[in-house]
Amino acid sequence: MIIFLYGADTFRSRRFLQELKNKFTRDVDPNSQSLSVIDGMAADLKTISGQINTGSLFVKKRLIIVENLFKNKKEKIFNELNDYLKTFTSADDNIIIFRDEELDTKEKPVKAAAKKLFSFLKNQPYSQEFSPLNANQLLSFIKKEAQAFHKEISAPAASLLINSSNSDLWVIAQEIRKLAFYTSTGVISPDDVKNMSFDSAEENVFGLMDALSAKNKKLAITLLEEQYASGLSDEYLLSMLMRQFKILLQIKEALNSNMNPGELAPKLKLHPFIVKKSIPQTQNFSSLELRKHLNYLINLDYLNKTGRGEIKTNLFLLISAL
Question: Which domains are assigned to the chain?
Fold first, then answer.
């Protein structure tokens, strides 16, 4: 069986992948001896086929997960793998899951060498694209997330959460979890979101970014420790820092191109408050530094989602390296 999961909505594709892994370990292989995760960015056909053909004395089926194959720079793998996968039949006991991020869009086109493989995978019966949710789908997602914690959430509260999180599902899921434990009633209200949720967290992130931009390592470490002590998760803090570094890079490059500061908010589609708070932070970073730090965080996010990264330690290392 071949499963292809891809799309810009990495939260839902990652969650669905985890559900598939959980089902496999629960129903087939409790010890995960027949489960392999392959870094598709560096893999070749020998690596992938070797994992598929590795047998087990105790488990007949194998689950092989290949992450981010379409970012592989060794383009010959696409034709080789396309030919190799066509030898599989629906009766094959092995399960091969390919998971990639955004593909086949104007911003992220498929490489010419990879188009045949992409078409083959896309047309598999178990192919699924995870596109960003529209407004109604986001509301439905938020309600289901709240119900998982035996809570309801009002429509105004859900809308406020969407706007304050920039529709980021990684942030939204973390916020709902916090709100569910914070709210004493059965319904999460707009006041709950305002008092507990994104606004206060964003202020804390701005404080941390102020310390980072000033290269004040001692203060930055103290503030990060406080964030962890308050109960914020690794993924949430990483998501917030990635978001802020992206914003700083956008603003820095706009200012470098002589854009009027007063035009930044509407042009970049950012809240004026965020722009106002971010402009001073950009003054202590070059564009190159911002790209370097952002790429570090993006790579850390990737390593974490593939089970190979330790976020907390690496965030402190980022601060130490300033």
Answer: 2-129 (3.40.50.300), 135-196 (1.10.8.60), 199-320 (1.20.272.10)
